[in-house]
Inverse folding.
């Protein structure tokens, strides 16, 4: 097979189902060699079989992305099996939804670990490989594609752990883009809205498939073309962006920006601050509402 990602080697975490599976199938169809990582061995094997059945190249892997040593093994497996590595797509995630006042430490730690630490572990080892290539004089054309969320950008009622992890991933993406460009590595993020196991649980009615054969707005396959383009050589000039994508819509999330300040020119007294805050609030463009608010 050949296509926009012909010969490129891709690692996709959480690729046994949902968005990750659609990314894997799309990359396989675009000529890439895909390492399909998922803790569900059967799901990973099924994704690999479907890629291979369509004429693509893929390998299943079930190692733990939250374990730093196992993440190194995942990266090394892709390089040893396919001969190189070009793209890491951090997609795996879980939800442990609960209102903040009732959330347990375990529920917090599990979500932060899978999302935020999982993004660090795989990317860290991939960057070590790419940086070594760069230092040896090789041309590097590498990609990190992270998965944030509207919950991370705007907040989401009942998902403070998930929102915090996804907000951290958005900031991580900005840092990676700024620090890694010198080595030939770009970093971009996604805030996709699609029908997955996690989203169906939280938004069952909204995510239902249409029954009349019309465009399936929340089909996870709708997100895959953007991800494939970001993983290709054609996206080399695009870094530090966070894309929101749903249905046929693609937009770029506009990040935090400082407003025009109120400047006293001297130290404020506590009694004076309230009036300054009222001025600032009167000028601001309201943020998008927290999901569920």
């Amino acid at each position: 097979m050949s296509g926009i990602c012909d010969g490129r080697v891709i690692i996709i975490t959480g690729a046994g189902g949902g968005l990750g599976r659609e990314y894997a199938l799309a990359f396989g169809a675009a000529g890439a060699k895909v390492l399909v990582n998922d803790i569900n061995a059967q799901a990973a094997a099924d994704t690999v079989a479907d890629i291979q059945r369509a004429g693509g190249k893929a390998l299943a892997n079930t190692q733990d992305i939250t374990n730093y040593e196992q993440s190194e093994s995942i990266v090394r497996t892709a390089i040893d099996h396919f001969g190189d590595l070009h793209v890491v797509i951090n997609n795996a995630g879980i939800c442990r939804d609960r209102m903040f006042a009732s959330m347990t430490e375990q529920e917090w730690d599990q979500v932060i670990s899978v999302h935020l630490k999982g993004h660090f572990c795989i990317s860290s080892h991939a960057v070590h490989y790419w940086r070594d290539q760069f230092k040896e004089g090789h041309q590097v054309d590498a990609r990190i594609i992270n998965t944030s969320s509207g919950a991370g950008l705007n907040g989401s009622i009942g998902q403070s752990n998930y929102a915090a992890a996804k907000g951290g991933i958005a900031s991580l993406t900005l840092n990676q883009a700024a620090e890694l460009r010198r080595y030939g590595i770009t970093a971009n993020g996604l805030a996709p809205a699609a029908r997955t196991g996690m989203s169906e649980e939280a938004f069952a009615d909204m995510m239902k498939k249409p029954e009349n054969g019309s465009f399936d707005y929340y089909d996870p396959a709708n997100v895959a073309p953007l991800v494939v383009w970001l993983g290709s050589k054609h996206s080399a000039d695009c870094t530090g962006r966070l894309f929101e994508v749903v249905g046929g819509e693609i937009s770029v999330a506009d990040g935090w920006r400082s407003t025009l300040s109120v400047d006293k020119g001297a130290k404020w007294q506590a009694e004076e601050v309230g009036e300054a805050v009222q001025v600032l609030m009167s000028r601001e463009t309201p943020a998008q509402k927290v999901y569920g608010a």
About this structure: The chain has nine helices and eight strands. The chain has one domain: 9-252.
